[in-house]
Amino acid sequence: xxxxxxxxxxxxxxxxxxxxxxxxxxxxxxxxxxxxxxxxxxxxxxxxxxxxxxxxxxxxxxxxxxxxxxxxxxxxxxxxxxxxxxxxxxxxxxxxxxxxxxxxxxxxxxxxxxxxxxxxxxxxxxxxxxxxxxxxxxxxxxxxxxxxxxxxxxxxxxxxxxxxxxxxxxxxxxxxxxxxxxxxxxxxxxxxxxxxxxxxxxxxxxxxxxxxxxx
Length: 215
Fold this sequence. Notes:
The protein starts with a helix and ends with a helix. By secondary structure, it is of the alpha/beta class. The protein is 45% helix and 15% strand.
């Protein structure tokens, strides 16, 4: 009887220990699995700031300074000599000459479009040479972006620049075209009101001179 009771107690203890061990193993596995899940859980990453493409700073186009040179007829001839090797367009004009002012932009355009073909442009203002007028002439040239040689005609001994520069009857506008050797090849004079001269005529004469081969 006692032996049977002892065996019964031992079986109960064995079953208790087995159940305890199984419970301990199950708890350990459960904790291990949870820890593994927490470890492998991906932490949310902060959103990357949108990349900003650096826009290059726009640089202003390089421009030449607008200058105005006072010169008499002999000084003008020296300026012409410095242009040899190029076709030269000379635009004689004045701020009081309405057609001159109206059409001056053509002279600027010809310089811009034909300079790479060998055209050199000179503007000669036939205005007075006092300081106030010089300022008005310079302001007009700056407004027109006249980035070429600009001359204000003068004359010594109270002579009339219209005469010393050879402007027919003092009539403006007046254009001259010189070939690459410095020879005058075309003159457009508005002294005769009946003679119709267009800007297309002047441009055609410039292009013809540019096509001529140097002698």
